[in-house]
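User: Please run a holo structure prediction.
Assistant: Happy to. Please share the sequence and the ligand.
User: Here you go; the ligand is 2-acetamido-2-deoxy-beta-D-glucopyranose.
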Amino acid sequence: MRVFVVLAICLAISHGKVTPDYFPQCKRSDPEINKCILDGVEAMRENLRAGIPEVSIPPLEPFVVPTLKLDRTAPNLRLKAVVKNMRALGGGDFRIEKLKLNLNNKYAAEVKLLLPRLAVTADYDVRGSRLLVLDIDGKGKLRGNFTGISVIAKGAAKLIEKDGVQYLQADKVVTRVKIGHGQVAFDDTERPLAASSAANFFNASPNVVLDILNPLIDESSAAILKAFLNKVLAKIPLKEVLLEDDPAPAA
Ligand SMILES: *[C@@H]1O[C@H](CO)[C@@H](O)[C@H](O)[C@H]1NC(C)=O
């Protein structure tokens, strides 16, 4: 009987925890908390690749963005586009180059990631748009290979409470993205010739076009990252990953 009660309590406790056991748990006061997090993320890389449905973490391989609406005017650019079914392969090979946390009365972080390679496919529908002097309207499927991608992301989160449990929600996220090299192809169903000259133009000088698109890339990746983080953070009770200190022993 006593064994049964202990078992029942253990079960109740383990059911209370929503994050899988391989999730990192780091102590708030750990002077090496960055290393704790980096080691923890590394240890769950394969799970991140496949996705962790228990806590709504979508797979990184492929990473899917169902819909992205772009509407932006910038120097040399007027872009109105709807991008659908974006799938990227390569996200699971991310390397974290730098992580800086600030947990002093706030939750702020800066992280620098490197992605050696991303292969992207997406459906696009572009209207009334121009890049430099090129009319870039069209509709179809794009494929692109991008290499040497660095992402600096800075974000702040706030504490929220749901049913008596504390979670974080991202509040502000900004990113700076640099893409080393890119190559694209378009299978355009409306204006195949214009699309193939746009692809040739891009492929001849990807850095020129990527520089023009940069504000848009920064803005879109920040929006994608914020949505991703909030989906994940909403399912991870803070106390399961960030452990408070043991109570100080009585003096
Ligand atoms: C991307 O790379 C793959 C594999 O190397 C290649 O087959 C494909 O044609 C490339 N796509 C583009 C748009 O260059």
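Residues 206-233 form the longest helix (28 residues).
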